[in-house]
Records
---
Amino acid sequence: NDGARAVSVTSACVDINDSALINNAMGGIVIVDSADAGCETTLNRTLIANTRTRDDGVSGRGLSIHSSAVRLVDSVVTDNHETGAWVSRGARLVMQGGTIRSTHPQPDGLYGYGLVARTGAVVELTGVDVRSSHGIGLALANATGVVVGGHFALNGIALDVREGTQLRAEGDAGTVLGTLFISPETQFIDNGARLGTGTLPLPDVEF
């Protein structure tokens, strides 16, 4: 697909099952303002791969979620550019199983982050493998996250929190606004660093 996105959903929800979205330009899936519809988009056993940057070298995100609720089950987000999955504007991503891997930087060398959550977003990862991100595996800025089990492996930096988000390793796995909870069983393997310093730039273009 040489257009801007393979799938674009606005103010609605869809179920995508046993599908592959490969070699698209700029964005694989974009889901916007579905919270107004009071529903959840579900992607089961879906492959989002090889999303390319535009001709000007911008974006290449696999999955972009804004003001929407999305559940990603046993799915693979791989070999995308800039960001594997982007969650913002109060959106919620629940990811159960599957992997986000091999996220590449833009041609200018920036980014290459597995999952980025910003501006009040919430992410919940259970048994997810985040690996081989050029930069950061999971970055939260003014966002909330829960990670139970799974692996962070071979990322430049496994985790990065900033803009008021605090890392939390004690208590239960429920969401506490403004914190990132990491369960004791989550494994960190051969990352360049486990926790970033909050100095690497984050993408700020939402589409």
---
Amino acid sequence: PNDPVEKAPFCKLGNNVLHQRQVFTFSFVRDPLSHFVSGYSEVVSRSMGNFRSSADKCMHRGCFRWLREEDPLDRAKAFVADYVQGRATNHACCEFLTALHVVPQAAFLRSALGGRFGCRVRKIDFIGRLENMTSDWARMNEVVGSSDGATFGNYKQQSKNHGHPKTNAASGNKWRVAMDRLLQDDSQLSASTRDMLCTILNVDNVCFG
């Protein structure tokens, strides 16, 4: 009951729907490194925006080291170090700030199936790939017997009012750029840190291909 993730608004709103046996549940996953970079970008944005007070509390408690770094590259390196050592996801006081965004996608879906978010998902009927979003969205319509797209519409219709313009790949924000560069040239990470990160994120490759 004290878990901040279970208090998430989307969990409260979805509770009644997810308890219906006829509900169709789906998810889209992406390349694990791309997911990590995107999640990191959102985490930093939150720590400087709506979750600034929570981030300040986390920093003063010593939960995260990365919050102390002002240089984009130093912050990216510190975040990876915190992440592989469990600091970025294992503190209940900070979990809502970070865990939903950088936890491996397989672990996120497993948690949803286990009722971890306060609204148990009975099953996941369809999993698509973000890299194949347009075609997989159409394929999802076919799965429910709606080849004309009448059930979910097309992806362009559904996505036009959604997204994260301040943190997505097109935003060019310095925090995202720094993490992206760090992971493309990981020579600035220790071998042990790099190997631990790959081990953690590789679960998505194993589960989703």
---
Amino acid sequence: VATLGGYVRSATIQPTAMALAMNETGVTSMIKAVGQNFMPKWRQFAKDNFYVLSTREFDVSVKEGIEALSGASILGKVHKGAAQVAYWPLHATDAEAARISGLAAFDSGRSAGMSMEEAIKYANDIIIRTQGSAARSDLARIQTHVFGKAATQFQTFVINELGYMMKDVAGIKNPSITNKEAVKKTLKLLGIITASNIVMEDVIGMRS
């Protein structure tokens, strides 16, 4: 927990995870969502309607690691508190990225003619599919047993990202995506990721 939580770079580049969501929502809705995220009414809207945010954890290894420190002793409480402090920057940036992605998806859904209920459901789905989730129901099968957990420590988002790109972008084992759509989504995602890397490396000066 301390290793990942104390790694400043991890927290700094976390918002680039929104690239996957942007591939689904479009640039316009994402830009609009970034602005909405600064408005109290939209942050409250997200809290009230995006159920996946309330129990969100970035990585199952981090979640279980902090829970393991929940001893009744004073030393146990100190260890847990220190871990939570170290983890806070990553948790905070992850939460912002997930909320913005949800708001972008909601706006995209409404713009496409979805009802309020449909757009909210779509937003929750986009958050899970593009931002990863440590909820047991959203984990890859390999992450649910002892040896798999050890082999995939701190890899929840990476596994989710790979799954998204294979199923939702390349259309592998997804008959709802045609070859033409797969090529279009792949090129679009490559463009978004390239632009994101340019910002991180050339503007901010951090290897992405």
---
Amino acid sequence: NDGLIRFAQNDAEWQVLAALFDGMVDREGRLPAWPFLHQGGKVTIYEFDLVIAEDFGQVLASLTLEYDDKSITVLGVEPGLTYYRDEYAVYSGFSLRAEALPDAYGEAVWHEPGGDPGGALAFTIDVITIIGSSRRWAVWAQRDWEIGLLLTVGGDWDCGGIDVPSIPDGADLADFRAPEGWGMPLTQEDLFMFRKAIQDHQLGSGETG
């Protein structure tokens, strides 16, 4: 990858990458609690499986062009540092130079350390977050909810024209999740809290992607 992809090499480097999300993403929180610390902005919702797919690199490339990011950072939040380090001798955090997108994202997220697919983030990560160096956008994706959220702050970025479909504004999340009995069931309270969080952060009607 000619230095365009850099995985953390030790605990300290992973912590440096994690600190880049401070003030923007609540790495300790989980849906239905709102994961973003920035007030305001616009949210676009994706299916979780799309966020960890190679094609999501197209979304990230488009964001870096809109917000003039020099790089992006990807962090596996759950399982986190110790799981991947102890099980696969790899760290669940990496940075990508913007010019490496879109292709390098898929290469990195599907990287199999030592040829073991279990060590690939795309196979085993439950919570993943992504941020641009401009700090004007961030992604939070959570496997049990089967969705990913993209927060953009300012600018004119729009998901239209990118061949990675988002979940339409106001859609019933149940229509985009696994059939009942397969995934984690979401209660009406869960869904209410989720919708309220969007409204409370001024990401509701007319502002979602």
